[in-house]
Amino acid sequence: MSDALTLIAHHGYTIIFLSVFLEAIGLPVPAALALVAGGAAAASGLLHVPAVLLLAVFGMLLGDSLLYVLGSQMGWTLLGFLCKVSANPETCILRSAESFYKRGRATLVIAKFIPGVNSMAPPLAGSMKMPFGQFLGLDLAGASLYALAYGGIGFLFRDFVTAITRGFRVAGRVTEIVAILALIAFIAHRVWLYSKHRVYRVVPRV
């Protein structure tokens, strides 16, 4: 059994839960990749499908509910903070709010698949005083669709995911160095974005 499969077998549930939760609260964590890996592990018999889906959905609901509550309390302050590290903070909220108004409640169902909108939809719903029960029902539908889509990809294409994992293991040290350099570059880019756009302390209201 490869090191990657061993890691998933021992810590797969924790990795999936933390990945989707951290992405839900706005951190740059590749939750989709974690779900694909979890689906592949479930297809291999290392994890249980119901547990993977339930933990993934619960993690997303927990993170989204937290942002909903903060959005209802902090309003535009939280939205402005989330936009500070985006590529275009001048239009970040405007674009997200436009999608929210144009598609209405359906935005919460598809938000997970739209970069930038995924972490903005819950606090927007909170700031616009959407009833929490309504928000939770729509968010549950969106989280379930997201978990099924990416988990299903991993489950159906288990052999392909295994081949990629085996390739990374063969590459060994080179892959680790590239991954570390990519992570450093990503963090440096985010810090540069924040420094560049920190002048936008007040985000225009819709």
List keywords for this structure.
206 residues; globular; disordered C terminus; 10 helices; mainly alpha; 76% helix
Give a brief outline of the structure.
By secondary structure, the chain is mainly α. Helix content is 76%, strand content 0%.
Give the topology string: H per helix, E per strand: HHHHHHHHHH
Structural class: mainly alpha
The largest pleated sheet is described as:
none
Helix content: over 70%
Helical stretch tally: 10
Let me know the average pLDDT.
75
Give the overall silhouette.
globular
Total domain modules: 1
Question: What percent of residues are in strands?
Answer: under 5%
- Number-wise, the strands total 0
Distance between the termini: 54 Å
Q: List low-confidence stretches.
A: 200-206
Rg, alpha carbons: 18 Å
Characterize the structure shown.
The chain has helices at 3-24, 31-43, 49-74, 76-83, 92-103, 106-110, 121-127, 132-156, 158-171, 173-196. Helix 2 (31-43) packs across helix 8 (132-156), helix 2 crosses helix 9 (158-171) and helix 3 crosses helix 7. The protein has one domain. By secondary structure, the protein is an all-alpha fold. It is globular, with a radius of gyration of 18 Å. It contains ten helices and no strands.
